[in-house]
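Hey, quick one: can you model this chain's 3D structure?
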Amino acid sequence: MIFNFDIIYFDAMMCIFSMYLIASIIPMLSLFDVVIKSSVALLIFSFYQVNDSSILAIVLIMWIFNFVLPSIVGSYFVLTFNTDKLTQTDE
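Sure thing. Here's the predicted structure for all 91 residues.
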Protein backbone atom coordinates (compact mmCIF):
# COMPACT_ATOMS: atom_id res chain seq x y z
CA MET A 1 0.00 0.00 0.00
CA ILE A 2 2.91 2.35 0.66
CA PHE A 3 4.23 2.04 -2.90
CA ASN A 4 0.74 2.30 -4.52
CA PHE A 5 0.73 -0.86 -6.61
CA ASP A 6 -2.30 -1.60 -8.77
CA ILE A 7 -2.50 -5.28 -7.92
CA ILE A 8 -5.29 -7.34 -6.44
CA TYR A 9 -4.61 -8.58 -2.91
CA PHE A 10 -5.00 -12.26 -3.84
CA ASP A 11 -2.61 -11.85 -6.79
CA ALA A 12 -0.08 -10.09 -4.56
CA MET A 13 -0.23 -12.89 -1.98
CA MET A 14 0.13 -15.47 -4.73
CA CYS A 15 3.20 -13.65 -6.11
CA ILE A 16 4.79 -13.30 -2.67
CA PHE A 17 4.17 -16.99 -1.93
CA SER A 18 5.69 -17.95 -5.29
CA MET A 19 8.68 -15.69 -4.70
CA TYR A 20 9.49 -17.27 -1.33
CA LEU A 21 8.87 -20.79 -2.65
CA ILE A 22 11.18 -20.36 -5.64
CA ALA A 23 13.83 -18.53 -3.58
CA SER A 24 13.83 -21.29 -0.95
CA ILE A 25 14.34 -24.00 -3.57
CA ILE A 26 17.47 -22.35 -4.97
CA PRO A 27 20.55 -23.20 -2.86
CA MET A 28 22.47 -20.09 -1.79
CA LEU A 29 24.50 -18.44 0.93
CA SER A 30 22.66 -16.01 3.16
CA LEU A 31 24.73 -13.10 1.83
CA PHE A 32 23.35 -13.72 -1.67
CA ASP A 33 19.78 -14.06 -0.41
CA VAL A 34 18.94 -10.49 -1.41
CA VAL A 35 20.20 -11.07 -4.96
CA ILE A 36 18.20 -14.24 -5.48
CA LYS A 37 15.00 -12.88 -3.92
CA SER A 38 15.21 -9.64 -5.87
CA SER A 39 15.73 -11.50 -9.14
CA VAL A 40 12.82 -13.82 -8.47
CA ALA A 41 10.63 -10.91 -7.35
CA LEU A 42 11.45 -8.93 -10.49
CA LEU A 43 10.58 -11.95 -12.62
CA ILE A 44 7.28 -12.72 -10.89
CA PHE A 45 6.01 -9.17 -10.38
CA SER A 46 6.90 -8.19 -13.96
CA PHE A 47 3.77 -10.09 -15.06
CA TYR A 48 1.69 -7.48 -13.20
CA GLN A 49 3.60 -4.42 -14.52
CA VAL A 50 4.93 -3.43 -11.10
CA ASN A 51 7.73 -0.83 -11.06
CA ASP A 52 11.17 -2.47 -10.86
CA SER A 53 12.70 0.14 -8.57
CA SER A 54 9.86 -0.29 -6.08
CA ILE A 55 10.37 -4.05 -6.02
CA LEU A 56 14.09 -3.65 -5.43
CA ALA A 57 13.46 -1.12 -2.65
CA ILE A 58 11.02 -3.48 -0.92
CA VAL A 59 13.41 -6.44 -1.19
CA LEU A 60 16.23 -4.31 0.20
CA ILE A 61 14.08 -3.17 3.14
CA MET A 62 13.08 -6.79 3.84
CA TRP A 63 16.73 -7.89 3.72
CA ILE A 64 17.77 -5.12 6.11
CA PHE A 65 15.04 -6.02 8.62
CA ASN A 66 15.54 -9.78 8.36
CA PHE A 67 19.33 -10.06 8.08
CA VAL A 68 21.28 -6.86 8.73
CA LEU A 69 19.60 -5.59 11.90
CA PRO A 70 19.57 -9.00 13.66
CA SER A 71 23.23 -9.45 12.69
CA ILE A 72 24.18 -6.11 14.20
CA VAL A 73 22.25 -6.80 17.41
CA GLY A 74 23.69 -10.31 17.67
CA SER A 75 27.23 -9.04 17.05
CA TYR A 76 26.83 -6.49 19.83
CA PHE A 77 25.76 -9.16 22.31
CA VAL A 78 28.56 -11.51 21.26
CA LEU A 79 31.20 -8.79 21.56
CA THR A 80 29.97 -7.57 24.94
CA PHE A 81 29.49 -11.05 26.43
CA ASN A 82 31.46 -11.26 29.68
CA THR A 83 32.93 -14.70 30.33
CA ASP A 84 34.51 -13.62 33.63
CA LYS A 85 31.17 -13.99 35.39
CA LEU A 86 30.87 -17.56 34.17
CA THR A 87 34.34 -18.65 35.34
CA GLN A 88 34.09 -17.16 38.83
CA THR A 89 33.12 -19.57 41.60
CA ASP A 90 31.47 -18.69 44.87
CA GLU A 91 34.11 -18.70 47.59
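One thing worth noting: Residues 29 and 36 are 10 Å apart (CA to CA).
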